[in-house]
Amino acid sequence: MTHSLFDPDPYLQPIPKWEQAELTEFQIAQVVVNRPLDEPFDYLLPESLSPHLKAGMRVRIPFGRGDKLLIGYCVGIRHATSDDVHRRSRLKQVAEVLDTQPLMDEKMLELTRWIAERYLAGWGQVIEGVVPAGVKKNSGTRELTYYQLDEAHQQWTPEQLAKLPAKQRQLITILMQHDDWLTGVDLTSLADCGPGPIKTLLKKGWLTTQRQRQLKARDAQTYQRTPNLTLNPDQQRCLSSIVNAVHNRQHVTFLLHGATGSGKTEVYIQAIQAVTAVGKQAIVLVPEISLTPQTIRRFRSRFDEVAVLHSHLSDSERHHEWQRIFAGEVQVVVGARSAIFAPLPRLGLIIIDEEHETTFKQDSTPRYHARDVADRRAQVEQIPLVLGSATPSLEACYRAKHGHYQLLKMPKRIDGLILPRVDLVDTLNDPLINKHRHLIGRTMEQGIKHALEHDGQVILFFNLRGFTPVLWCPACREKLKCPHCDLSLTWHKDKGQLLCHTCNHATRPPEKCPYCHEGTLKHLGAGTQKLEEEVRSKFPAYRALRMDSDSMRQHGSHDEALELFRHGHVQILLGTQMISKGLDFPNVTFVGVIDTDSMLFQPDFRATERTFQLISQVAGRTGRSQKGGRVYVQTTSPDEPAIALAALHDFNGFVRQELIHRAEQMMPPSTSLARVICRGMDEHATLDYATLLAEALRKHLHLIVHDNELLPGEINPIRILGPCPPSIARMKQYFRFHLQITAPCVELIHRLWHASKADFPKPIGGIEHQIDIDAMSMR
């Protein structure tokens, strides 16, 4: 006789009904851990811990065969069912509750579950990534002792009090007047005494104590208040649409396509004012830390309570802000990608500025995109989401075209200002660049000189860090590479070191080629450090400042640099992407793009889109006053559509052309894309593993679309490319191979992945794979 897995176990004796009722009166805690696992685990919740545990708290649990104690997250608590009775003895128990209040509410738990399902990550991995480390470590707190009268000594008659020494009598009177717990500092201050009388009352057993952590107080900064600006008709029309959605509690995703300098920030601010007027709160995401100081300044000049969340905060600063947000004390949260998880209790509006930026995509588990997480959170909360950009992503344009987003347009700059003229400078025949290896050609040099002589300021954009990106041996023709990555080492002259920009490996430059031991290494190419040196040499009478991730490492350095430029103490600002967007300096009359070709010719199907966006964004930093502005773009490929259309400010023309090209390639946004990366220490074993994984996926292809064989002549809409090495074939000592999966919708990729998992090869020798849904990088 055989039994199904779902049949009752014939060897188990039935439990009497009176015993069954008693046994089912226990609770099950559902717990997830920081592992790539799909479902929560059931743990028995002891009666002693039951009053203290709520969903959203951390717990310590025995996990795995060795019952190693791990920290997990309680995602639900339920009463035991009759099915739980038989397995009660096999259930492991929650060992400890680690929090006094939940770290997230039910809506945030629901959002993290959605992220786990959407991006094929473990639920516990998502929660671990959402809660800041400073919050988990209680950073910036101090443990204080709180006092209250013992239960047996809470009532005192005047006669009893009169028999006590004056200070003890004063302390007891104060404690009788307060129902809440008081710290020792509170008591000594109110009773005007030292700690001695408190110790005496403790020895007598008249006081009870408890220890609690408290955030250290921080000094509040004050900002000068500024009035609202008068909106033009385009701004007012966009604002009205957003405010109507706020008042009607509608979930609408608005794509606010506004030219650079069209006044998008003022629309954001006045929309948030409408939100705070009805007691609600808002989140504003910005893509770069360098934008955060000026954005914070703008918002703090309009709102009383603004919180900040970004990666340059210390753990204690982040914890302090998180607690203020959780307590509902703030009106606006401004921050980078992770600020989308700010635990605001009365969220009424989400805004993502510069929504096209790739920094909104997380490049480690969980690999979420803040734009799509914001859209989901706005759906759950039934509130509007505003995506703003002068150069929206093709994904956003595609969704607006198909009615998923509502398009709002602000095509003109405020105050009648016009977009700057953009001149393409063909550098093929420039002797300064080709013969003398300068970065700034003749035409660019004249443009900079003219702007400076007329009291204007200059921004120079160059998207390569360091002094020279390649050291090359003419004898054996080898490039000096990082020993851990398949990348050239970059010479950083200021540090006197060669650095890998991927794994941060650093070394001194060798005197001879380490490969042939004969040739003397030569420098090829240039970066921002070399540009800075050239600028100082050509324009010695003017102060120049470099902004890149090497020069802006110290806390507050972004704000300090931009303030120097804002107040005219610096005339030439040069740097990488952090100066290409969002900056509003009316005195900038010249912008130069040093090398466009390095951005365009990348092994990435999004390279043309990023090139167009960068040229358009950096061009938008000038012409923001009646002085006007000029933009020079140095390139050897002036006829390339992305460059030529950017020079014409023809965004719509670029989008039409690029959408057709992407559809022909079967690439996003008309399809969904997932990238699977396999990595291991052994190159051949990793390739074998990637090949077997690809075979497992292809094995299930024909079952996914119709759950049966495809019709004759029908082409499967799911495509799998690879495995092959990515552009960086070795990174941080790991050899890498990747696959690309494209499908008409992400749900088909999910179905294929789940159907194939059982056939995936077993990891051997530390080989692992990761899947990146909606991958933004092909490196």
Description:
The longest helix is centred in the C-terminal third of the chain and has 17 residues, at 683-699. It is built from 26 helices and 31 strands. With 779 residues, it is α/β, with parallel strands linked by helices. The strands form 7 sheets. The chain has a 7-stranded parallel β-sheet with strand order 11-12-10-13-14-9-15, sandwiched between helices. A 6-stranded parallel β-sheet has the order 16-26-25-17-24-23, with helices on both faces.
Describe how the helices and strands are arranged.
Blueprint: H1 17-23, E1 27-33, E2 41-45, E3 58-63, E4 68-79, H2 82-86, E5 96-97, H3 106-118, H4 123-130, H5 133-136, E6 141-149, H6 158-162, H7 166-177, E7 182-183, H8 184-191, H9 196-203, E8 207-215, H10 233-247, E9 253-258, H11 264-277, E10 281-285, H12 292-300, E11 306-309, H13 315-326, E12 332-335, E13 347-353, H14 370-381, E14 385-389, H15 394-401, E15 406-410, E16 421-426, H16 431-434, H17 442-453, E17 457-461, E18 470-472, E19 490-492, E20 497-499, E21 506-507, E22 522-524, H18 528-538, E23 544-547, H19 557-566, E24 572-575, E25 588-593, H20 597-600, H21 607-619, E26 630-635, H22 641-647, H23 651-665, E27 672-680, H24 683-699, H25 701-706, E28 719-724, E29 730-731, E30 734-743, H26 746-756, E31 768-773
Parallel strand pairs: 9-14, 9-15, 10-12, 10-13, 11-12, 13-14, 16-26, 17-24, 17-25, 23-24, 25-26
Antiparallel strand pairs: 1-2, 1-4, 3-4, 3-5, 6-7, 6-8, 18-22, 19-20, 20-21, 27-30, 27-31, 28-30, 29-30
Helix pairs in contact: 3-4, 3-14, 7-8, 10-11, 21-22
